[in-house]
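Narrative summary of target 7.
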Amino acid sequence: MSTGLRNLGKKEKGKLYLLDTNFLVDYLLGKDEFVAKFKGFSQTQLFVSSITSCELISGAKEKDVSTMNELLDSFIVLPITDSLARKAGITRAKLRNKGFKKPLADILIGQTAIEYNLILVTGNLRDFPQLKEKNLLLAFPE
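Modeled conformation, tokenized:
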């Protein structure tokens, strides 16, 4: 991973956000509050995980795949590196020991937020307990 990517959240003056899949789905469905929130962000503030790319494409109807690709092409898509995956594995094991059973995709998205110091914009706070203590969550809608 390049140093530039690792320090994304530390270099920028404004806040930087990782958009969760559920936020983008509601935006694509044209829900007014999500469209307004999305338009309120500067494009340079927004990132998605490669896991979100996979979830959007796999959930799309064949006729909508090009729309999904166009949307994803407008973001910097952050990769799941081996280092990030190993840290996510540790996080998942710790959460499981505390009684939290979370899907691997959510653990990887959450670890991406931690790794790049990004605020995760999601409607599913319960899916990301590892981010609450780090103040890296933005509930939307609030």
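Residues 3-123 form a domain with the Rossmann fold fold (CATH 3.40.50.1010).
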